[in-house]
Write a structure and sequence with these properties.
6 strands, binds 3-methylbut-3-enyl trihydrogen diphosphate, binds magnesium ion
Length: 247
């Protein structure tokens, strides 16, 4: 071979074999801002804008379900001003999303506990869920005040109540039935989980639902995670061999 090597064609996404459901842990906002000498809250504002951009891209390429971890049951431990900034950004997002869902035929759902949220945000969540209930486009699940252990605990309580009310018998409890008691009822499990921000852990996200999801971790921080990064994650997903315990 001469010195002129053939330029390797850039890998590209196979749009005929997309993951149906992508879940993303939106992590790294604080570090992104700190590195730029800005307060952590500035990182949340940029991260929130980035979520709009990536959600639009997912919808454009034909992803059916997008689930994002926006605020965990553990994130209340943060300083009050950071929590209130995140809550205001979420309110702003929901207000704008109400218009967006109509235009783009999106379905918006919120997964998580309503306990501890302000009346205002709860009202916005209810309104936008109601408004978009019959939309047939991409379903966006925003995990807000979400913790997987809490979700499972709530499901177990409800099942126990239904058993004591004779609505179900203990021997009828199946995996599908447990599924139907979770916030994610009716939604297929994520095919691909992406965690930007460099951490390689689940941080109490979808412990039940991610049992057989493919995971992609990247050091990119969420505010700098762009469409090309999403493409990279999908390309990586498309190389995986999903065996589900078979051969
Ligand atoms: C955003 O990233 C995720 C939220 C909890 C809102 P972080 O705020 O966790 O950013 P880092 O991980 O501290 O950089
Ligand atoms: C996970 O990120 C929660 C969300 C992105 C909403 P964290 O920043 O809270 O996770 P840890 O603390 O690094 O595990
Ligand atoms: Mg973090």
């Amino acid at each position: 071979m001469g010195i002129f090597k053939k330029k390797q064609a850039a890998e590209s996404v196979d749009f005929t074999a997309l993951p149906e459901h992508i879940a993303i842990i939106l992590d790294g906002n604080g570090r992104w801002a700190k590195r730029r000498g800005m307060p952590r809250t500035a990182g949340h504002a940029v991260g929130s804008e980035n979520f709009r951009k990536i959600a639009t891209y997912c919808n454009d390429i034909g992803i059916k379900y997008l689930t994002v971890y926006a605020f965990s049951t553990e994130n209340w431990k943060r300083p009050d001003d950071e929590v209130s900034t995140i809550m205001s950004l979420l309110e702003k997002y929901i207000i704008e999303a109400i218009d967006e869902v109509r235009k783009k035929n999106l379905r918006l759902c919120f997964w998580g506990s309503r306990a501890g949220l302000s009346e205002h945000i709860k009202k916005l969540m209810d309104e936008s869920e109601k408004e978009s209930r019959d939309m047939t486009g991409m379903q966006v699940n925003v995990c807000l005040n979400y913790g997987s252990r809490n979700e499972i605990k709530e499901a177990v309580s409800k099942i126990a109540r239904d058993v004591s009310a004779d609505k179900i018998k203990p021997e009828e409890i199946s995996e599908d039935m447990i599924d139907s008691y979770l916030y994610s009822a009716g939604t297929p499990a994520p095919d691909l989980l992406i965690r930007p921000g460099g951490e390689k852990r689940l941080s109490n996200f979808l412990l039940w639902q991610l049992a057989y999801s493919e995971m992609v971790f990247t050091d990119k921080l969420w505010p700098e995670f762009d469409e090309r990064e999403l493409d990279r994650a999908i390309i990586e997903f498309q190389k995986r061999n999903r065996r589900y315990g078979g051969i």
